[in-house]
Amino acid sequence: MHAKTDSEVTSLAPSSPTRSPRRPVYYVQSPSRDSHDGEKTATSFHSTPVLSPMGSPPHSHSSIGRHSRESSSSRFSGSLKPGSRKISPNDGSRSGQKKGQKQWKECAVIEEEGLLEDEERERGIPRRCYFLAFVLGFFVLFSMFSLILWGASKPQKPKITMKSITFEHFTIQAGSDSTGVATDMISVNSTVKMIYRNTGTFFGVHVTSTPVDLSYSEITIASGNLKKFYQSRKSQRSVAISVMSNKIPLYGSGAELSSSTGTATLPVPLKLNFNVRSRAYVLGKLVKPKFNKRIECDVTFDAKKLNVPISLKNSCTYD
Q1: What is the rounded end-to-end Cα distance, in angstroms, of the chain?
Q2: How far is it, in rounded angstroms, from Cα 223 to Cα 12?
Q3: How far, in Å, are 33, 46, 216 from residue 76 at the CA level?
Q4: What residue spans carry the region label Disordered (predicted)?
Q5: DSSP string of 247-293, one letter each residue
Q6: What pLDDT, in 10s, does the model give residues 155-169?
Q7: Which end of the chain has fewer surrounding CB within 10 Å, N or C?
Q8: Tens digits of residue pLDDT in 79-93
Q9: By 3-state DSSP, what share of the chain in percent is helix, strand and coil, each rounded to 5?
């Protein structure tokens, strides 16, 4: 084995595995960049190990310190964005607390708004529907009530009974009409009596009628009108109608009636007809049932029964 030179010894000395005492490690903390928003600084830090100057060569101590300080300052300054501020490690916990408080306040506001909306739904929506529901219900109930009244009033029809007719004057004489045509003329004065009875238990009726016509051979020889009246509930009255005429031309129909005495010697068949109209105002003018009755009576005039009531009890039809 040949002896080693001084140069080889000096070159191998630094690389020889000499044991040295355990060197302490220092860490430089640099904050990481924020992920997206650029407004808040994250609280996480990167740890960069730096060798202690104890085991390092004397010439590298200052350079390593400067390099570590420069790198940490450059990393720290690079992580900040325009408009941001520097924060200490304690700022992370403070910002977390503020963030938690803000989230709690936001949740409290949202929950309060939700409760207010639920309260408005419970209170506001039914109030808006109350009026419409009341009006609709009122109309439904009122319509049903009106229909009930109308249905209850229809069967309660008034009853009309024809009593008699009395002829006070009945003459036939020659004459001429308005155009000068010669013909027989008839004049009649009579009174028709009837009984009107309102059977309604909870309403009165207003009564009118068409003209009361007395005709002979389809010629109206006398006429009268029923005066309008009001009949209260469950009551009746006797009604008298004056049926009269003056010099009504008979033309060819009066040939068999004429006589020298000016009165008919033979019985004269006559017909009495008219319509009675009754209207009840059960609920003002909203419920007003109508009752119409057509009356036709066969009457026979006898000169011997002048001024004597002629019964119509079995001589009339009611439709």
Answers
A1: 160
A2: 160
A3: 9, 11, 131
A4: 1-104
A5: EEEEEGGGTTT--TTSS-SS-EEEEEEEEEEEEE-TBTTTB--EEEE
A6: 899 999 999 999 999
A7: N
A8: 444 444 545 545 545
A9: 30, 35, 30
